[in-house]
Amino acid sequence: MAISTAWLSKWFNKNDTGRGRVGLAVGPDGLAITMVNHLGVLEYCQFHDPQGDSSQLLADIVAEKGWEDTPCSVVLHPVYYQLLLTEEPPVEGDEIQAAVRWKVKEFLDFPVEEAAIAYFGLPEDAYRGRQKMLYAAALRKTTLQSLISPIEASGLNVDCVEIAELAMHNIISRLPQEGGGIAMVQLHEGEGFINLVEDGAVYLTRRLDIGLDKFNAGVDNTRFFDALFLEIQRSLDYYESQLGKGIITRLFYSPGLPETVPIGDFLSAQLGLNVAPLELSMCEVAEAISDNEQLIRSASAVGAALGPQRSQEAIRAAS
After folding, report:
1. Which of 64, 126, 241, 279 could be bridged to 122 by S-S, CB 3.0 to 4.6 A?
2. Cα 181 from Cα 309, distance rounded (Å)
3. Are the CB atoms for 298 and 42 separated by under 8 Å?
4. In angstroms, rounded to a whole number, what is the distance separating the alpha carbons of residues 138 and 317?
5. What is the pLDDT of residues 223-271, one digit of tens each?
6. Right CATH number for 1-174+283-319 from 3.30.420.380, 3.30.1360.170, 3.10.450.50, 3.90.226.10?
7. Coil, strand or helix: which one is 202?
């Protein structure tokens, strides 16, 4: 099925309407539904495990809450897209869109003509200023449409499609600022990712080949801990040696559930950083939600609904 220009314009393109905004996180782990009102305050937050007809569940909630035609940001689970680091093409204006597609096509396992691609640039001083770099996210247009169509059918007005790495960054950027850089580790089933942030900007994001499926609370998790530590330490070393950045002083991990506390304890002991679970209660916008577990499990959807704290990254569609 062909994808119209209207579909592609939603890719990384949040419109500021002055109204409230629904944030949805879709993925194999379940459906998170959040709502931020026009004042930027989170007033609804629910996570639903992957069972039954989630599209009908969403439609029922939209009808019940009267959210028809409400702006909606959708955050994709990392399983749906590739995230590629590449040099920023030495072109300007509209030419960069085609140039980004050309640069990433060799890394795709499907024809680039079938891809929806968007990118965001890294700060000027990343990689010691030697070369401008960017991250490009790519997925099949048909996959994007299959994920968005049921959401629009529910009555919501999808005007932004986000990736998990940037949705989580929207939360990190709202935490109280202290000296030094911040690491944010997000773990899913089967995989995860780490963001390294300084002065509110993402300098490095990297997929982790370790997930919560390898962690079992209450038993010996030595192999899991060793693998996770190695992945994080590699990222920290790369951040200092290749990007030329300073020392990371804080690390937040997600999900910060009671059963994942041993992960935080281990990382704190091994890394020598200030390690803490990512708790949305630290953000003033989430004060109206009393169920902390719902907040934790819906973190990326909350980040999508909130949007960027400040526009550090230039984000554009190249589709």
Report:
1. 126
2. 17
3. no
4. 10
5. 999 999 999 999 999 999 988 888 899 999 999 999 999 999 999 999 9
6. 3.30.420.380
7. strand
